[in-house]
Amino acid sequence: MVLCASLWSFMILCGSKDFLVRLHRLRPMGNVQATRAHPSNNLAGKIPTEYNKNHKVSLGNPMPETKPIYLDYNATTPIAKEVADAMVPYLYDHFGNPSSTHPYGVSAKLAIENARKQVASAINCAPQEIIFTSGGTESNNAAIRGYALANQHKGRHIITSAIEHPAVLEVCRYLERQGFRVSYLPVDQFGLVDPDDLRNTLTQDTILVSLMHANNEIGTIEPIRQLADITHAAGAAFHTDAAQTLGKIHVDVQDLGVDLLSIAGHKLYAPKGVGALYIKTGLPVDKLLFGADHEKDRRPGTENVLEIVGLGTACEIAQRDLDANMAHFQKVRDQLHDGLLAALPEDSFRLNGHPELRLPNTLSLAFYGVEANTLISEINDRVAASAGAACHSDQIDLSYVLEAMDVPIDYAMGTVRFSVGRGTTSEDIDKAIDVITNALKGLMPQNMALDTTQIDDISNIKLTRYTHGLGCACKLRPQALEQILANLPPSVDPNALVDASTNDDAAVYQIREDLAVVQTVDFFTPIVDDPYWFGAISAANSLSDIYAMGAQPIFGLNIVGFPSNRLPLTVLEAILRGAQEKAQEAGIAILGGHTVDDTEPKYGMAVTGLVHPDKILRNSTAQPGDALILTKPLGMGILSTALKAGMLDQSTQEKAIRIMVELNKTAAMCMADVPVNACTDITGFGLLGHLHEMTSASKVNAQLYMARVPVLPEARELAEMDIIPGGTLNNLDYVKPFVSFIAGITHIDQILLADAQTSGGLLISLPENWVDVLLEKLKAEGVWAAKIGVIISSGNGTISVESE
Q1: 735/630 Cα distance (integer angstroms)
Q2: Are 351 and 337 in contact (CB under 8 A)?
Q3: In Å, how far from its chain's centre is CA 361?
Q4: Where do the DSSP E strands lie in 427-536?
């Protein structure tokens, strides 16, 4: 596309402000001879005429045959076998309601009270000071909101820190909207709160201070006792979120001097969905929910006996084995740190968090000049860990914890949290060091290149592991694109028939009275794992812009970004072969191209075509009364996101590839026989985004009928599971001011209409009386198509979406 093509190169700079792309030639870019038939050529063929509207997606198994080494214990822990064994009787035998007075109820009640004693013992409090919750989030909400509401007559000021868990920060923001005043304390370079800052922030109006025991991202342990004493001296209560500390270090409410303490079961080998809150005797706390008088009338609802038993057992084990576990955690954590120090260059990474006052299992490392998400994508089938930052096409999302610590962006972008657990072995750590080191050698700016030039077997390489984005979903947000282009001077050339002043799909330049050149460029990161099909899909996507303009392609040029120190050149050969064979299907040759050595694989084409100036199809010439026809179904962005996560079964993957690899050539040939007023192809901005480009440029209003829009049923099901690419959400945010969704159009419908497509279909605007003619021509040629809406009137580009 013209508008986005000039800005695609900005994507290369996404990872670090100092990142420089090194230009060089990997190999001549002429036609690459296919050395062998691609094993997946059985996918070739026409798009199926039906998309199985009643089909339910069969999810793939994302777990590799050899399970990855798990180094993400701060995210969650497995249920300990002793815990599971203790829970089993309460699945089958002791199923009674603990409020009932018969033996079934009594046995359940006794189990709850025993668990209460186990939790109380683990943190050294009285059993009656423990209430059970659904987890750490509820415990934090119950503590902070409950105490604030019960004590607002004393004051309406709360103090917390800038690095708290969202379960604390969000409830504080809620209370701010209710009229409370909240102060957010800064932290130092290690993530520590300065006690003097707390002392200076306390006022006579302060009723509560909430500061976490240890940070979940960096592991820094706060001086809770000192902070609590300062708080109490000012007459306020003190809450701490201990979700990350129980079972890893000593947690004693008497030693800590706290009034409220939150516990999350799944952080200490208990089930997910259960937690506890310590409330010091006599402390007034309002309840969040209303119902019966369970949990001493502080938390209504029939108790989750099964998981409460699990939490109690987990707390007993944590208390029993704490010293041994602490020693084990620190041993394997330090083994990982020392191993990476020995294997990687000096100053290539740094430790986040305090070197001493830190959880024994937590290692947050910041790798210089590396994108953490790219590293995680490459290793996550062998090592499971968490990233501390995310890079998108137009913005960088740093962890607010790292921002609060003023970690330099070149390090913050490369932050990965490794957290070990009871099941981590020394052998695991040795393997993890090898995996992480080998991946980093191909990513670090020191360019410690691996010998990747000749690897013949590339069948196990999954390209989506080598990128943090997918296909056209990586485009700049439309909002950002408009802002950038608005600052550039317009081009002035009398021979330019279509240029960047419009939202058309390609540039058109008149070279004589009866002939114009059409030029477009598109490239993106892998949307599928197979290199051959990535090349073929990208080529089809690049050619689509030419067809959408009513032109015929005549030749293409390759555009390649390739991580030659991460992937073998045989992968590039397969990409180029897939593109070449797709170009041959289009009847053109690829005559050359250009490459850059990049951190991620990227491929696309600059395509040149020809058209008679009178035959140009623009997206700015739709007319009132036109019908809108779409030639491919929606949902490719969602399916691609699921594929990267390993959630698609083989048949759904093949179905997606068949659709994306299909050229829009046949649809364009059919379109040439009817009086089309306007056309565009549906790619990264989604159906709504590209339709809005058409309506705004044409100064018309449009109406879509959701029931007629072709949507892959697998994509709808995955969207309902919240498997949605970020580019799709950006698209929806952008178009909402221009689109009205009539009652009955669900949020999932809106997501699908905005889904970022790759190699999508043509959106054709033509007179209503020619609709049946075109649909019959398309059907006869094996192209699935549907009338999805109409141009209803002249206007300012608005779109209304109705059910039918």
Answers
A1: 19
A2: yes
A3: 26
A4: 496-498, 507-512, 515-524
**Do residues 662 and 540 make contact, with C-beta atoms less than 8 angstroms apart?**
yes
Tokens 């504080």 appear where?
172
Per residue in 13-43, pLDDT (tens digit) is 233 333 223 223 333 333 333 333 444 444 4
Collapsing DSSP to helix, strand or coil, 152 comes out as coil
Q: Which of 293, 317, 370 is nearest to 119 (CA)?
A: 317
Q: Is 457 exposed, middle or buried (0-12, 13-18, 19+ CB in 10 A)?
A: exposed
Tell me the whole-structure pTM to 2 decimals: 0.77
Q: In angstroms, how far apart are the furthest CA atoms of the chain?
A: 95
d(CA 410, CA 530): 31
Phi, psi values for residue 311, rounded to 5°: -65, -45
Separation of alpha carbons 598 and 11, rounded Å: 11
Per annotation, catalytic residue among 14, 391, 472, 679: 391
Digit-coded pLDDT (tens) for 332-388: 999 999 999 999 988 899 999 999 999 999 999 999 988 898 899 889 889 999 987
E strand or H helix at 77: none
Distance CA 118, CA 107 (A): 17
Tokens of 291: 């119902």
Sheet strand arrangement including 415-419: 349-352, 362-367, 415-419, 386-387
Is 4 noted as a catalytic residue in this protein?
no
Backbone angles phi, psi at 504, to 5 degrees: -70, 170
Partner residues linked to 700 by β-bridges: 794
Beta bridge partners of 767: 626
- Can you say whether the dihedral through the CA atoms of 603, 756, 692, 549 is positive or negative? positive
Contact call for residues 29 and 592 (beta carbons, < 8 A)? yes
Distance CA 639, CA 646 (A): 10
Q: Is 247 left (phi over 0), alpha (psi -120 to 50) or beta?
A: left
Pairing state of beta strands 626-630 and 762-767?
Answer: antiparallel
β-bridge pairing 206-210 and 507-512:
unpaired
